[in-house]
Batch of 2 targets.
Target 1
Amino acid sequence: MQNQMTERLRAAFGRFRAQDLAGAERLCGEILKDDPRHPDALHLLGVVRLAGGNPGDAVSLIRQALEGRSRDATMLENLGVAHLALRNFTSAEALFQEALALGASHGPLYMRLGIALASQGKLPDAEVAMREAARRSPEIPDVHLNLGNTLAERGALDDAMAAYNRVLELQPGNPLANFNLGNLHRMGGRLDEAAAAYERVLAVEPGSADTLNNLGLVHEQRQRLDEAVACYRKALELQPNHVQAMNNLGSVLRTQGLVNEAVACFQKAIAEFPNHVDAHVNLGIVRTEQGRHVEAEALLGRVLRLDPSNFEAHCNLGTLLKLQGRLPDSIAHYRRALNVNPKRAVAHAGFGGANRLIGDLEGAIACYRMAIELDPENADVHLQLAETLKVQGQLEDALASYSRALALNPDHVSALGGMTHVRQHLCKWDGIETMWRRLREAVATGSGGQISPFSLLSIPTTPAEQLACAKAWAQRELLPFALARSGMAFSSLAPRSRQRLRIGYLSWGFHRHATAYLIAQLFELHNRDRFEVFAYAHGPDDKSAIRARLQEACDRFTDVSRESYLVTAKRIQDDGVDILVDLTGYTLGCRPQILALRPAPVQVNWLAYPGTMGTDSIDYLVADPFIIPDGSESFYTEKVVRLPDCYQINDRKRAMSDHVPSREDCGLPDGAFVYCCFNQAYKILPDVFASWMRILSATPGSVLWLLEANRWATENLRRAAAEQGIAAERIVFAPHRPVSDHLARYRLADLALDTFPYTSHTTAADALWAGCPLVTRVGDTFASRVAGSVLVSAGLHDLVTDNARDFERLVIELATTPGRLNDLRRRVQEGRDTCPLFDTPRFVRNLENAYEMMFNSFLGRAS
């Protein structure tokens, strides 16, 4: 009987070896029918069930077998394998260790122990077990394969590659070894080697969707996007629910601009796998780009509910919230992203951007420098560092960072624009004309959205080029907010029923800033029977006297500097503002995103920005007949409203010190004829300076008095003067002084010279208010006509020229004809209190009439 059972058991084992699991199970069943506790039959049946995919049954059967043979190492090992299949890794480890303690010592047992240890995260112990397995069984491919897997997980990539290559020596064409080698090459950036490894897999297993997916990733990294798409589509043909391929296909389609197809991929992935994190993240990124911010935030928020430590979700939420101006929340998410992975440059760069927006420039610079340390080849981060250094006044360092960005990407238009503007601030003019030409070419070819519209105003450009740049910039920066209106409750704006119009003034400049000094009296003189004045300040509170004056003059003054764009827009809407007037435009500190959300029925561009905003979210531009002559309206997306006099308001209460410093105090020689120009250095272009040098050459004994901008501009201008035959000491620099003291200095100057094409604005009115005549030259752009408008409104038409030759001729005539200049100075001084330029009450009435016209037009459209 015993011999018969042994024969049946041997037959059952033979069937198992021949992979006839049904036959093996039948024979085991026959043995157990005669002897239900036969340990070898129970053991073999358990192994058969395990091979058939029933590890739970295997555990039960092998445990019964062990009741009769408790110290059988083979049974303990197979029970461990069953627990491994059930992912009971702790139990598996204990069983393998017990089998080893009983004397089992073959390589596969050590390999299985290594798998159990690695599955619990015990990678050092797993490596020890795997290396022992390889030592004991050097000819078994699976041992080296699993050793490679453990080494790869430990980050020992070279050793892992050696293990996989050993597999291929033993078993050429092994698909798993080639697949894993491909993954290691891809992670190491060896894309050609990765592609070759994946192709070897496909030669053996052409239907491997995973391999096609990973080959697609390689093509994507190589920027071979069409080939990547083909791989992902083929993977999905083979395995329609391959969620990674579906998600990756969506990412490439998004890069190719096929946004709707990309969205369909992400949505399908989420529909089939509701907890797929990457698809949620990617769809969230697309919705952010589309301006569907509420939906984007919900998608990324769901990722964090599924995986609270997800780096991509925190980082992209940081970007989304930064875009909305929700800076404290943005910073919190960037911090959490960096807690998860402090080695990701993208999070450091995003964190830097948020810090910069809250005014923490040092913090921003530190973040950008860390991002560059981690990813030194990223031109965009070098650009952001340069922009921050520029705002901080570290102009030479900014120039170096712009240069690095352009070295990495010679076609980086934003870096080119930034570098050009900084070089103008430094008066570093070598090659500047070439840079201007490249910027104009970028606008002409549709890349204007990467150039700050403000920086274009100070270089030789046409109104059409400035319009194209502003429209492209608005399309890139503001379109997402315009698209977001419907989801943010700004889609319907009913007319208000109220006797007084409520005017909201939005500005960064409600502190010691030119805008504040120009506009202060407007708030005081507004007719309170017809208007209420609300101010929204998003710039710094410097606790200055001018800010206090503005606050006192408003019906309501609100500091919104720490609010998101959405919160401020909602506040403006809830305040019932009828006409929202933006006093910043595209200058420093601007927040045009608020206007893009359309919180007020009528929105206006005025005063600080001399040009069009290029967006349909702003209805009107306040100008005058000189600034925008008839026939020039097509260069502005806003409707042009012309005030009868100069568009620029002036404050009759502006203080001017009674103390006039001596020429010696200011470094000016006694008896010299003093030309002055207190415009910012970036407005001084090479041809303008050359014109001034010709004027100095034609008027011996004269000096040019300029505003001290920075040490580099001072050095460069003096050097340029010497190169043009003018002694460096004839260029004198005036340090910055408080406004009242600065205005008093004009009394030491004989004649003010203007820049071109960005002419004097506030500085033109300052000169005339102090009694100093100004000669200007006008062009076709808004910025090139402001000083002309100021002079015309002051009754000084004869000081306006329209070309460089006439400008120089007029200046020289005035400087060499003392009687004519004295008469001119008398006209300036006597006309100050009567000319329209400084008749602030008259200006306010005209502006109020314009506001009523704007709102009545809106009512007509709304009815």
Note: The mean pLDDT is 93.
Target 2
Amino acid sequence: MPDTPGKEAITQAEARVLEDLRAKRRARQFDRWLGWAIVAVGFALALSPGAATAALLVGSALTLWRLRADPAMHFRRLPFDIPVLIFAGFGAASILVSPDPAFSFYNYYNLVGVYLLMYFFIGQNLRTGRELKLLIASLAASALLCVLYGFYQFAFGIDTSAMKWVDGEAFPELRKRVFSTWENPNIFAGYLDVMMCLVFGVFLRVKARGQRLVLALALLALAACLAMTYARGACLAVAAVFVAYGALRDWHVLVTCVLVGGGILALDPALLERMTSVFTRLDTSSEMRLAFWESTVAMIADHPFLGIGWGAYWMVYPLYDFYMQGAAGTTIKIVHAHNMYLNYAAEIGIIGALAFFWFFFGTLVTALRTRFLTPEEIEREAQAGRAPQPTDLSPESGIDEELRAVHESVAARTEAPAWNWAAFRAEVSHWEERRLASGFALGIGLALVSIALNGLTDDLLFNIPSSLLMWMLAAAAASLSLVSKREQAATRKEQQT
């Protein structure tokens, strides 16, 4: 009898250990499943939107299951949840005033529902360097396939003269515009803008020569494919982003941008003529855009609070058609305003549009401000006696292992000859998580700038994969911002003690 309490205590202790082991196994299994879901969503988004949506539904269900079953997984609030909810609320309310509420409701829950799922899925699961690398790798792989397919179209010929993407009278020599897996060249060009900004952001933050070489080649391939789309707005938008960054932060970027851009224009006179047409004359597409904007402003003036209804632009536009009325072109369905700002204000009202742009530009600023200490900066902090605490970006390995990898990489570069394939491969295979996170956050900020500039003459977010990509990047920026803030708070606390 005296040993009974001891046996019970041992049994309870063993039960706790077994429960901890089971919880860890469940967490590892969830990590594997959700990692594959992130890869599937990121990879399929540009190649097969239907497959991406299916993967997103599975990933969101797994996330809900994990939030319920894993005590270590807590729901995290993102910085711009409030404007997202206001935007979703006014979008839903606009259905009530739509000319066809059934259509608007169907369009709303199929689009906004998926947007919110993407925001939830990425925002809840992007917590460590592992998930970040999986997301970046999947986006990079799909972008590579899109670019290769774009080159294939250009090499073997895609005659777009009958597809209404070019004013044949203004540009009779322009017969070939690539669009890869996207719907048309302008949308593909907007996607390439985003990818170029993401690559450029990472390029600015990494220091290894092999990595910078790979990223530079990727930028050249993306720029060449962008030129093959002959999309004026997208070309000018990404050029403005790079030139502005070069003028404000690094003159080397400015010089490189001028040289590369000038070289592409010199090699392709058709592209040069198309770019200069923006400043020298109005072709049909420019004239039509001005007409769309005039009509859309009238819509907003007549329906300022709830708008004309989610997705109802094409139904209401004929009532405000000041440009093509009575002409043969009136049978063409005008589905959006070719201006992101006016389109949101027209469809969901001024308050709903302001909520969306609060979320959009707030995310843009947050992404540009997000920064992680590099391994070298961590080492300097440690030498000064102010070592920051490990963060979610390296939960298992900690800071020491990453610093050791950096030292080994530096030593290898010091001892290696001018060109060593093994050293190059080792460099490219090891991406410092903090540099990668900082670069990706910067790239997201620049990508949102490009979308904002593109939005002046087009509405890329009307395209479902483009808008899903934007919501994915916004959630990623919010997640990285939270991790960065925790790191900075831990550093300040350590400095105070």
Note: The chain has 18 helices and no strands.
